[in-house]
Automatic annotation (TrEMBL):
Residues 299-326 are annotated as: Disordered. It is found in: Cell membrane. This is ABC transporter ATP-binding protein. SUPFAM superfamilies: P-loop containing nucleoside triphosphate hydrolases. Keywords: ATP-binding, Cell membrane, Membrane, Nucleotide-binding, Transport. Belongs to the ABC transporter superfamily. InterPro entries: AAA+_ATPase (IPR003593), ABC_Ni/Peptide_Import (IPR050388), ABC_transporter-like_ATP-bd (IPR003439), ABC_transporter-like_CS (IPR017871), Oligopep_ABC_C (IPR013563), P-loop_NTPase (IPR027417). It is a peripheral membrane protein. Residues 1-249 form the ABC transporter domain. It comes from Nonomuraea mangrovi. Its main location: membrane. It comes from the Bacteria. GO terms for molecular function: ATP binding. Gene3D superfamilies: P-loop containing nucleotide triphosphate hydrolases (3.40.50.300).
Length: 326
């Protein structure tokens, strides 16, 4: 992704949901995208999928997938890619599963549509996928409806459906937020195992750095639709450089135990994306702005630097950060 910008028109004004976002995701790796509600995480991925409404939104930049720019790709191309080369898992499995069809039939249908498989071959593939995601007695369970599955089982079923065509890219938007802690851990383990087998790239959207710590290779921290820190998971979790990331890390009960509720990591509330603060968008909430000089922080927007590797967007010097980091 290069310089992605997404604006929406609403009755209240223009929402600047994403502003100048760039990142890469390599095959076989997971990028964790972290931020509070309203930080533009989900919007970014709807744009990747071509699911934004062209009537009310303006999207610019480049989203290159396997050498092809998806922004501006014809609708038919996006329809062919979605569910096939690029698949998604949402927080609520019932977003992807219809209550009126059996779980097996829904998975088989995705395979038939994209692969042109026969009914029986698609059914066998559905049973195989349910088995791979750890559904016991998959042949029997394939004939059941989503309401007959527990929450964790339903999320396993949506993972089976997302992976049925061996996608090169899987986008998982808060895939474990609705699940209890034990089931969360199982689902994250499952995603890791499946990634090892298939080599898919995964974009994992979450508000939970614990989930990132246990699952991702790289992490991108977002605030108000901007990337404010990025690096490997080790770099960002062990040597966080941006004051907002310090706040996020400070709010974590434990790196090993994912939280089930959205915590407020820093005093104050995330800014309205209609009136994003000038300069560093975090400055109204940042305790360290006086150090950099308040006029500096509310002046020009800080860019991510250095351009490669572990980078962050903050005016404090490395020395200042070392002195004040909690
Ligand atoms: Fe805080 Fe200023 Fe750094 Fe923004 S640029 S995080 S306001 S010190
Ligand atoms: Mg979201």
């Amino acid at each position: 992704m290069r310089d992605l910008t997404v604006d929406f028109h609403t009755e209240d004004g223009v929402v600047h949901a994403v502003d100048g976002l760039s990142f890469d995701v390599e095959r076989g790796t997971t990028l964790g995208v972290v931020g509070e509600s309203g930080s533009g995480k989900s919007v970014t991925n709807l744009a990747v999928l071509g699911l934004h409404d062209p009537q009310t939104s303006r999207v610019s930049g480049r989203i290159v997938f396997q050498g092809r720019d998806l922004l501006g790709a014809p609708r038919s191309t996006m329809e062919r890619l979605r569910g096939n080369e690029i698949a998604m898992i949402f927080q609520d499995p019932l977003t992807s599963l219809s209550p009126y069809h059996t779980v097996g039939a829904q998975i088989a249908e995705v395979y038939r549509r994209h692969r042109g498989a026969s009914r029986s071959a698609a059914w066998e593939r559905a049973v195989e996928m349910l088995d791979r995601v750890g559904i016991p007695q998959p042949r029997t369970r394939a004939r059941e409806f989503p309401h007959q599955f527990s929450g964790g089982m339903r999320q396993r079923a949506t993972i089976a459906m997302a992976l049925v065509c061996d996608p090169a890219l899987l986008i998982a938007d808060e895939p474990t937020t609705a699940l209890d802690v034990t089931v969360q851990a199982q689902i994250l383990d499952l995603l890791r195992d499946l990634q090892e087998q298939t080599g898919s790239a995964i974009i994992l959207i979450t508000h939970d750095l614990g989930v990132v710590a246990s699952t991702a290779h790289h992490v991108l921290v977002m605030y108000a639709g901007r990337a404010i820190e990025r690096g490997t998971v080790r770099e960002v979790l062990h040597d966080p450089r941006h004051p907002y990331t310090w706040g996020l890390l400070g709010s974590m009960p434990s790196l090993r135990r994912p939280v089930t509720e959205e915590l407020v990591p820093v005093r104050g509330t995330p800014p309205s994306l209609i009136n994003v603060p000038p300069g560093c968008p975090f400055h109204p909430r940042c305790d360290f702005a006086p150090l950099a000089g308040p006029r500096v922080c509310s002046g020009e927007r800080p860019e991510l630097s250095p351009p490669r590797g572990h980078s962050d967007a903050c005016y404090l010097t490395s020395k200042q950060k070392q002195e004040v980091r909690p």
